[in-house]
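pinned: reference chain
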Amino acid sequence: MKPRADARVVYSTGQGPVCPGCGFPANACCCQALAAARPAGPAGPVRVARQTHGRGGKGVTVISGLGMSAVELEQLARELKQRCGSGGRVAQDGIIEIQGEHRDTLVAELARRGIAAKRAGG
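pinned: its structure tokens
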């Protein structure tokens, strides 16, 4: 059962723990249902490529093909940015962009986490 959209806890003293992902009380969390409905693995091959198009010649490393929820992508992107010591973002369609050339580092880190990733591009 999905809670109403306006049922988020704004302030409460008796609700107990609140889910950091969806903002609902832990007993009415909708993240668990979304995680159960999502496929277990990546939707397709995970590719780690370098792009410069539309960035004034500045290169970014792009990770695509991860079959994860938005919350998991944000967490993974945060950890990968820390690993590379660089900035980045989660773009539309579940793509993670990390500033700079970090393909080898990211492929090794994803393999360490059990995600089979391939280096794409030249």
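why pinned: The CA atoms of residues 75 and 90 lie 10 Å apart. The two ends are 48 Å apart (CA to CA).
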